[in-house]
Amino acid sequence: MNSFPFSIAELALSSQYVLPLLILLGAGLLLMLLDAFGAAKFLPWVAGAAFLLSAGVAWTQGAPAGRLAFFGMMETGGIAPIVHAFLCLSGLLTLFFLSDYLDRHDRHISDVYALLVFAVLGMSLMANAHDLIMTFIGLETMSMCLYIFAALFKTELKSNEAGLKYFLLGSFASAFLLYGIALIYGITGTTNFSLLASPERIEIIQSQQTVFYVGAGMLLVGLLFKVSAFPFHFWTPDVYEGTPTPLAGFMATGSKMATFVALGTLMHQLDMFQNTKLLSVVGLASLLTMIYGNIVASRQQNIKRMLAYSSIAHSGYVLLGLCASQSGMEAMLFYMFIYTLMNIGAFGMLGMVEHDYPDTELENWRGMGQKAPLFAVAFSLFLFSLAGIPPLAGFMGKYEIFIAVIREGLLLPAIVGILASIVGVYYYLRVIVVMFFSKSGETSALLPSASRIPLAGAAILVVLVLVLGIFPSLILNPITQALSGLSQATAVLP
Amino acid sequence: MPFLLYTGISAYVPLFLLIIAGIGLGFLLANLSVILGPSRPGIKKGLTYESGMDPVGTGHERFSVKFYLVAMLFILFDIEVVFMYPWAVQFRQLTQEFGMFPFWEMITFVLILFVGYIYMYKKGGLRWA
Amino acid sequence: MMDFFTPNVYSYLAVSALMFALGAVGVMTRRNGIVVFMCIELMLNAVNLALITFSRMHNDPAGSILVFFVMCVAAAEAVVGLSIVLAIFRNKLNIDINQVNIFKW
């Protein structure tokens, strides 16, 4: 009787599975309406509550991998709830620093909160997609919001330029990604991850290797662009520099986490760990990314640009982790979580000082340690953590990555990575030296903002970075648990 | 591979003939008046509007940015209709199977768009001044 | 009739690949922001053509559905992109992307 391959009950069940996403969608629409009717001062609170609620619902919704929603479009089990919660957290942490930053720059842009919620929604769609169509839609939802973030200060030329650059290069990259999807769809006749991994599709792929390599390569180009891996990194410093600082922190963490998860899932599903050609391309990109990011970062005179190059370098570490199959996925998620904490902290605190463009020049931070000792100590803590100094969370993240890589037998890449991260210590330390050990010049009247909310955010992040450095299992255990079912993800399809 | 229903160029021959006839007729009529008609140029005859207003300014005048704004908003809302086509084609069968559910589904979609419309209206996206 | 004129899958794919390549070359060589953006749209439409061809070839609607989404994304991209271009135009009265270069390397 039923001529359609689905029933209403199935739809209802799917809607229940994607409830965290629906919460974000509803909150985004509500934020738009509130903004339209002039209730601007509630917006950060509504957005924050939505992130908390959505993350909470997702966290309690854990399920074994392979719980697919909407006819195999979305993965809602396995790591999906955790990734969603992490992404919500990155949005929430950005909120702490955002409204104060906008206020101090006298730009009361209330649209930004709805965009932030939609950006997280897009990230979650992309990271937890189980179909290439969904990957594309999520990526575009996310990117569209990020383009607007880059160009947010529309009367400022620097912001305009960042927006135009990011927009043109970003859509160029997503056109490549799309052509890759089209080619893979062309040879296999499906875009679903489960079906792509089925034996008969793998047979087709093996008989059409050339087209498959071109397609998968183009897909990789699109995704590697979003994480600013080596040959596609050139937009990163310029875009981050023109973007409002807390939002640059968000771009460097949330969007990268989502893209890495999507990339990792795709590599699992297309079984690239057996297919060494594509894997070695990713590995090579990761090595070059680490080396390039660290070396160029050490030559920067502007802290914001330095952090941008450092985020390129960090992408390199995570990509290296991705090459190490299952344990790499675990290390990658853990690292991205830690990186989210410390990087949003670093960018956020940088934004607390910033009133004008040259405020992020390293020169102007002389004597910050004497003027605002607590602030400078907290900022140094984030920098130490980014550098990977032992008792802090950043060290545990790097440790997990390199251990996973070494366990996989990739000894040489691990050594290159460790050497590159030692180079990295230099430029983080340089900022700390300037803050504490050089006399304050006459130009530096810089003082951090004394607003309570960003200070509270910074305090929370400091505590988290300290605690997770000592007890990494708090986050590592749930990730391991959720991932233990990933290998069966291909089994079920309604 | 049986890929297109109307394969072969033969299906398009009448169309090509029509295009050739159309272009030919256009050229013929436009040039016929030049060939047959008397040509006595003068100052008055050289004006753009022979007995109307004298034209002001250049032909390459810039348009106000607001045209682009409205055009952009139009594109944004216009393209959403594309999702209604497959829904409309399948609507009868869908309602036979699921009752009014597909209808409310599309209403939800339109409501989401409507929130966007309210936002645009309230933010002054349609205000000309 | 000559078989050369008979359209098959490969002719559609060839046109699509050609359009994509033209768009990519345009993005890399053109200097006007709007023209670069038009080239990107050309690339997206090349993908659409390929997707519809594959969709018809496999007799599977997923490709056509993706085309709808690509069209939608292209429209949204057009709006965001043109807004950014307009903002630049208001600040600088020029959209030559060679002149948008206040950032040093």
If you had to describe this structure to a student in words, what would you say it looks like?
The complex is a heterotrimer of chains A (494), B (129) and C (105). With 494 residues, chain A is mainly α. Chain A has 21 helices and two strands. In chain A, helix 2 (19-36) packs antiparallel against helix 5 and helix 5 (111-127) packs parallel to helix 12. Chain A starts with 7 loop residues before the first helix and ends in an 11-residue tail after the last helix. Chain B has one domain: Up-down Bundle (Methane Monooxygenase Hydroxylase, Chain G, domain 1), CATH 1.20.58. Chain B is flat and about 75 Å long. The mean pLDDT of chain B is 82. With 105 residues, chain C is mostly helical. Chain C has a single domain (8-92), classed as Orthogonal Bundle (Helix Hairpins), CATH 1.10.287. Chain C has helices at 9-29, 33-58, 62-92. The radius of gyration of chain C is 18 Å and the shape is elongated. The model of chain C has no long low-confidence stretch (mean pLDDT 83). The interface between A and C is large, with 37 and 44 residues.
Give me a quick take on this structure:
The complex is a heterotrimer of chains A (494), B (129) and C (105). Chain A is mainly α and 494 residues long.
Write the layout of secondary structure elements.
The complex is a heterotrimer of chains A (494), B (129) and C (105).
Chain A lengths: L7 H10 L1 H18 L6 H18 L7 E2 L4 E2 L4 H25 L6 H17 L4 H19 L6 H32 L4 H4 L2 H9 L1 H18 L9 H7 L2 H25 L6 H22 L5 H20 L2 H29 L14 H4 L1 H15 L5 H15 L3 H27 L14 H19 L2 H11 L11
Antiparallel strand pairs in A: 1-2
Helix pairs in contact in A: 2-3, 2-5, 3-4, 3-5, 4-5, 4-12, 4-15, 4-20, 5-6, 5-12, 6-7, 6-12, 7-10, 7-11, 10-12, 11-12, 11-14, 12-14, 12-15, 13-14, 13-19, 14-15, 14-18, 14-19, 15-17, 15-18, 15-20, 15-21, 17-19, 17-20, 18-19, 18-20
Chain B lengths: L12 H24 L6 H4 L18 H14 L5 H15 L2 H22 L7
Chain C lengths: L8 H21 L3 H26 L3 H31 L13
Helix pairs in contact in C: 1-2, 2-3
